[in-house]
Amino acid sequence: MGVRARACHGSSLRFRVLGPVEFQWDGGDWQRPRAPKRREVLAALLANANRAVSTDRLCEYLWESPPKSATKLVQVYVHQLRGELGDLEGRWLRTQDRRYVIDVGSGELDVHRFTEAVSLGELAAEAADDHGAAQHFRRALGMWRGSAFEDLRGSAQGRLEGIQLDEQRLIAMESAFQAELACGRHREVIGELTAAVRRFPLRERLYELLIVALGRAGRRSEAVAVYQDLNRTLTAELGAGVRPSLMANRLIREIMGHHYGSHCAAARQPGVAAGA
Q: What are the residue boundaries of the OmpR/PhoB-type domain, all occurrences included (predicted)?
């Protein structure tokens, strides 16, 4: 009934979870539930949008060790949340067979819009439409305002939801940089790639992309320094036996041998646009 009821009443309710959980009525201001537990309930329901969620399941998101009164507390939080959403009749946040369902239509949740934009970017990359791929990936990344499901990071289940999306974000970021490099924007992305490497020091693909960008820009000594930094980081964090990838090694050999150009070893990755 929820999505249909919304259409009948001419109302639009949108949600964001790629950062602090928020909701928005009819294009108005974005709002947050006032109490932390109500924010957690909303985020947990949105992690399972359009699916019935049991009280026990909600408790896994809200507490590591649920109190004896957990079931009653969840009922109270849901009632209060409905009040904040202006949905005391339960048209959108519904009760179904003693479970709770939040109805989310097409385009009404940022996670869905993010995954759609990433899919479009991947399709464009496969079609060698590097400019289109870069635009789609950048649009997807622009939807993020912080950590995914930020309000749920206090529980193991909530952290799992967030970590899975964080990984998708990193893959989209790498794909965006790869598409930008394929468009010949190596100088433009060096600053962003440098910041990304510092933020995610164990993300080896980012080092590889930075080496590509620096090499194409003629900054060979800096590219070698990035490779050396990668080697030191892997050794310090993962142990003396861990070495940079075959791709990173091949890239640095090409740079040091002065055979580096637009058709370098990292010019194409599976599912990602090639360099020009």
A: 31-102
